[in-house]
């Protein structure tokens, strides 16, 4: 018998079996979900799943399910599984939007991987005057794959949204003033703990050369609050992860 089942639950992430991405997750317990392509290849190859194995599924939008493998086709790389449970997972709070200049090379992958593990819900590459990396569509596709793998590894059920690149001014104009925080050692900068009770945050992290004075002035004029990460000069990914950890773990 098929029954709808989507209670909101705080089920511990570690209690889920191996997790796979299924964007078209069925709405009804008892239905069959189908994995194809890379997800099926990973399930049947690296994971060596077989009939009757338990798996976890998620749609990247907060719905997760347990399922039992009912059919496999290793040649065609397809796997079918019957849903035995389906539930809504509470969204991360605070919801942290990271807007950040991209570092060079593999450091961008490290940044997105760790940020996703910490619960980032949205990422915008910043186009800064002193930035050296200009993302293109291929870059964004690679970053999406990194975020997806990090979700599966860390049992994060919300796949971060990835935006097209924006300048700091463009981002500030599109953001709610009270939610906007810029990492900058300006006079009057406050610890990020001042945002402890916020439900939503947008964190701006500049390139290693820092934001220009003009960029800082434009963002602060739009309502951003400058915050400090201490007296040291940090790499982009270090500053981004430190800020995310303070914003997410520091409020628990």
Write up what this structure looks like.
- With about 250 residues, the protein is α/β, with parallel strands linked by helices.
- It folds into 2 domains: about 5-90, Hypothetical PUA domain-like, domain 1 (Ribosomal Protein L25, Chain P); about 95-250, Alpha/beta knot (3-Layer(aba) Sandwich), CATH 3.40.1280.10.
- It is about 25% helix and about 25% strand.
- It has 6 helices and 14 strands.
- It has helices spanning about 35-45, 105-115, 135-155, 170-175, 215-220, 235-250; strands at about 5, 20, 30, 30-35, 55-60, 65-75, 80-90, 95-100, 120-125, 160, 180-185, 190, 200-205, 225-230.
- The strands form 3 sheets. It has a 7-stranded parallel sheet with strand order 10-9-8-13-11-14-12, with helices on both faces. Strands 2-5-6-7-4 form a 5-stranded mixed sheet.
- β8, α2 and β9 form a beta-alpha-beta unit.
- α2 (about 105-115) crosses α3.
Topology:
Elements: E1 3-4, E2 19-21, E3 28-29, E4 32-36, H1 37-44, E5 54-58, E6 63-73, E7 78-88, E8 95-100, H2 107-117, E9 122-125, H3 137-154, E10 161-162, H4 168-173, E11 180-183, E12 190-191, E13 200-205, H5 213-221, E14 225-228, H6 236-248
Parallel strand pairs: 2-5, 8-9, 8-13, 9-10, 11-13, 11-14, 12-14
Antiparallel strand pairs: 1-3, 4-7, 5-6, 6-7
Helix pairs in contact: 2-3, 2-6
